[in-house]
Model the fold of this input.
Amino acid sequence: MLILGDMIICGQKNGPVKPSPKTLGMVMLSENSYAFDSTMCKIMGFKYDMIKYIAEYAINNEQNIEVIFNGKKNLLSNMQIDNEWKFEPHDMWKEYEN
Done:
């Protein structure tokens, strides 16, 4: 299975009904849905260890999740995220924010 995420223009804040546009200009691909979601949480600025279905995987595998960004390999645990990439969460998700 291949997971594809079109993050060219995303929605943040109170989506999916009234999202505010957020431009990332990226496309994500993965063969592992847990690694995909863990990486997306980190990019968005959310605490993936608080999201039950990926928490155990992310915590146990953070040192092994390889991310290729702009042709450069890195580990998720070492990946530095620009503050401009971080999403403003939905009002109901504020506690999940880093």
User: Anything to note?
Assistant: Residues 2 and 31 are 5 Å apart (CA to CA). The first strand starts at residue 3 and ends at 12.
